[in-house]
């Protein structure tokens, strides 16, 4: 495939789409599908056919349009109309109103901050392209970055561009992507691997699933570019088996890319060859940890091992391996298309670009958002999220999943970037963001995450295996109002021990939800202790 051939496909596809007067796009991601969006799609197709409108109206399925709380969502283009809570019964009314007055009672206001305050890169094509048609992806500029890289850039120039962008890993720790790529590129070895971490086990998180469901080719293109940059000839996508739609669409993307020569031997007529396979995870949170993930891909039980050596030096089958997150790869094509400096214009000094969050919990606009780094938590919760529903009061926002912490109201003006969240005792994590209202007991919240860590601990090291159970039980004592001052001391000491003595990130971060609630909601722990005092003594 040459650049000219790619352009020809893109132009032909754009022409096809412009021939029709209207494009009706139906969200076909897991969220909307669970509320029958497939039936809406089928009803639209049938009704368009029945009315003989096939040459005027194109009906297509697309990925996530973001505002999951209002699903199933249907978008009408070029009019820029979004409809919420659609049913198959609404279909005739939508078609009746095409080009006329929209159906106001179903219309979503697209001028609200939920839409205007976002900035999309990784989600650029979500809700726009049909995830199962490579031509659709190509029409939006897809695979142009790959061809540009293969024909104009040396591998080290690709890495320089990624370094210039300042992109940091979106899987949690925020390690500089360009630096990781250059380490793998420099590592000695004939055989190298590129792995996409799509294990996504954090409670409340669905960013990676949604990206894979909405725009699998973008992730694939990012992986192929990475493989060229580091010198890998085999890639694996490690995705949890609970994500069947993401798996299906990614497999389709691989087949289509192979057919067009973007994968396989001598890609686009160059000496570069690369293959990608899918590996399914069984849904163990610890298998998201990179060394455990690699064990799992090798067919072993997924248990972390000590680092160093890091996977960049000795990873899959002992070979140099690049492990990056889904969203990290999804950022790559645009960086190579537009240049690293373009990407670095967004964000803060140390955290460049945008970040995708799954905004859930007690917030009006639950859904998937992508925002520039540096935006404040308050802007996310109140402007984009629309605040807390049912007249309740905001209490905290939990970021970073089980490895993160709870941030209180008085710190809501903190900018969202890797360092600021860490300084508060939480972390960016992979992008789960759960809003908590005044009805929640923070000890319950901490215990919920501790139960998760306890159950997901692989048991390899004692501090984590035993410590998480003890922490969980201690929190239970507080919940039952049986805890004493001594228990509070033990709780703090044990958190410290589990954090410092555990082998991998799961154990090291497991105490974070307790530590952050102790820091910001200590009064709730003390109140439970005070109530443990017998009434006559009080
Ligand atoms: C317990 C645990 C679970 C993790 N789960 C994930 C995950 O689901 N997805 C992910 O990308 N990274 C996860 N990570 C981080 C990975 O180990 C690794 O840092 C990441 O995939 C690197 O990609 P990045 O540099 O693009 O962020 C997890 C780490 C730990 C300690
Ligand atoms: S810290 Fe926990 S999850 Fe990690 S290796 Fe130890 S026991 Fe396993």
Automatic annotation (TrEMBL):
Molecular-function annotations in GO: 4 iron, 4 sulfur cluster binding; FMN binding; metal ion binding; NADH dehydrogenase (ubiquinone) activity
Pfam families: 2Fe-2S_thioredx (PF01257), Complex1_51K (PF01512), NADH_4Fe-4S (PF10589), SLBB (PF10531)
Keyword rRNA-binding: no
SMART domains noted in UniProt: NADH_4Fe-4S
Domain of life, per lineage: Bacteria
Domain annotation NADH-ubiquinone oxidoreductase 51kDa subunit iron-sulphur binding: ranges: 443-488
Keywords of this entry: 4Fe-4S, Iron, Iron-sulfur, Metal-binding
Family under the similarity heading: Belongs to the complex I 51 kDa subunit family.
NCBIfam families from the UniProt entry: PRK13596.1
PANTHER family per UniProt: NADH-QUINONE OXIDOREDUCTASE SUBUNIT F (PTHR43578)
Name the record gives this protein: Bidirectional hydrogenase F subunit
Taxonomic classification: Bacteria, Bacillati, Chloroflexota, Anaerolineae, Anaerolineales
Gene: hoxF
